[in-house]
Amino acid sequence: MLKGLGDLGKMGGIIKQAMEMKTRIDELKEKLGDMRIETSVGGDMVSIVMNGNMEVVSIKISPSIIDANDPETLEGLVTAAVNASVSKVQEMVKKKMTELTGGVDIPGMI
């Protein structure tokens, strides 16, 4: 199609590949919303389910950890669970992106 145009033909191929990659990344972004990662801390006292878009889907707190005289313990466990969930989701997204791009790092795509 672009035969005889030299570097312009190569550029067209690169643009086509980039557009295909963008389409696959957009498809991955859609799938991430359906993925679920569960994280528990404190011996399952606090559990968080987060989707691949790093949105909290649910939080479960064991009634045994709820103490009106010690809110700091519960706060610490919720904070730890959220941070652990974010780390797990980031790692999962990184793995999926690596599989998709063949290891090429594309900043800001997800």
Tell me about this structure.
This protein is α+β, with helices and mostly antiparallel strands and 110 residues long. It has a domain at 33-101: Nucleoid-associated protein YbaB-like domain (Ybab, Chain: A), CATH 3.30.1310. The chain is built from two helices and three strands; from the N terminus they run αβββα. It has helices at residues 7-32, 71-101, and strands spanning 36-41, 46-51, 56-61. It has a three-stranded antiparallel beta sheet with strand order 1-2-3.
Pattern of helices and strands: HEEEH
CATH homology-level superfamily of the domain at 33-101: Nucleoid-associated protein YbaB-like domain
Can you list the strand order of the major beta sheet?
1-2-3
Number of beta-strand segments: 3
- In the CATH hierarchy, the third-tier topology of the domain at 33-101 is known as Ybab, Chain: A
Number of helices: 2
